[in-house]
Amino acid sequence: MILYRCILGLLVLHATARIAQAKQVLLLETISLPVVQEHSKWFKLQLKELNPNVHIETYNGEGNAEKIEQFLKARLAKGKVDIVVANATLAAKAAQKLLGDKKIPLVFFTVSQPAKAGLVEQVGAPSGTFITGVPHSVSKKTQVSILKRLLHAKKMRVTFLGSTYPSAVDNLAKLKAIFAETTHLEHSEIIVDYKSGKDAEMKAMQAKMIQKAQALAKDTDFFWILTGPAAEDPKYLIQLQQIKPIVFAPNMEAVRAGTLFTMLPSKESSGRKAARITHAILQGQNPGSIPVEHTKEVSFGLNIKTAAKLGIVVPSDLLDLATGNIYK
Q1: Kind of pairing between the strands at 185-192 and 156-163
Q2: Kind of pairing, strands 222-225 and 156-163?
Q3: CATH topology of 20-136+267-295 equal to that of 140-265+299-327?
Q4: Domain spanning 140-265+299-327: which superfamily?
Q5: Which residues contact 203 (CB under 8 A, 6 or more apart)?
Q6: DSSP letters for 183-199
Q7: Are 110 and 90 in contact (CB under 8 A)?
Q8: Which residue, of 115, 255, 279, 319, is most buried by count of CB atoms within 10 Å of its CB?
Q9: 58 exposed, middle or buried (CB, 10 Å; 0-12, 13-18, 19+)?
Q10: Measured between alpha carbons, how far is 301 from 325 in angstroms, rounded to an integer?
Q11: Extents of the domains making up the chain
């Protein structure tokens, strides 16, 4: 028995030593949502393929920026971290705040507007700092141009629904500017305060949005869902669809549930690209020399049943583009 305990103790010490020697990657997830966790899945898979010995520690902040910041502060005080990887905006902002004087690189992904968030000065160039990453967005002009093609130049009013979540605020500003230049598309908006990803607060925010949407229903033709945690809840989107048709939402699950279309970066491609960047930095590359660039792969989804209900004839090239993501 004594010999067994000695052997077991040595094995534990050996395993602990191996973890200590391995590169320590801290993955901060902003919230428990499919879009975040799908990105994390592909990131971990790719990084382990590139370096099987890397140690990945994951923490989920449940949509609370203060909670993420408190955890990271305690974790940095506890011991070695070679690199921090932030999944979504709130985690990236918290990490940026605490890592500035630590000489620890920061890689972000699932952040739609990193320049607006203050993470980098511009997209498409190296940051020259300790931060780099993969933006998560598709041109709003492209999304609006698809809507215009689907509506065939009919005069319509679209209402943007979202919260004060950082990426939603930026989405709204860009969409309003584009709609202002479009003669046959009018717009309005419903924005509610974002507080945290806690279930009770999220439900309260969704209930408030539904109430406001019902009040505005007679004055609009369609809803357009802005990026944000609430947009990842199919049940919530189905409730909104019962008020007015949703022409756009920022995830494929929404299209499966009845939203007309979506266009978004490939989660697999984004996650794998973030992992390759992380691996390169762990190998010695300066994060400030790595360009902050979008992934080139996008996913386009279309619900042809919804299109038929709305009397929309879908152009053949859009049907081809949606191959593999056509729902009815």
Answers
A1: parallel
A2: parallel
A3: yes
A4: Response regulator (3.40.50.2300)
A5: none
A6: TTEEEEEEEE----S-H
A7: no
A8: 255
A9: middle
A10: 5
A11: 20-136+267-295, 140-265+299-327
* Domain 20-136+267-295: assigned CATH number: 3.40.50.2300
What tokens does 85 get? Answer: 């990887």
pLDDT, tens only, 70-118? 999 999 999 899 999 999 999 999 999 999 888 899 999 999 889 989 9
State the Cα–Cα distance between residues 264 and 213, nearest whole angstrom.
25
Does the pLDDT of residue 19 top 90, yes or no?
A: no
Instruction: Retrieve residue 305's tokens.
Output: 């049943």
CA distances from 200 to 131, 197, 206 (A): 34, 9, 10
Q: What is the DSSP string of 305-325?
A: HHHHHTT----HHHHHHTTT-
| Structure confidence by residue, pLDDT tens digits, 184-239 | 899 999 999 998 777 888 899 999 999 999 999 999 999 999 998 888 888 999 99
SS3 280: helix
Residue with tokens 């930026």: 170
User: Cα separation of 102 and 106, whole Å?
Assistant: 11
The predicted structure's pLDDT at residue 14: 46
Burial of 184 (0-12, 13-18, 19+ CB in 10 A): exposed
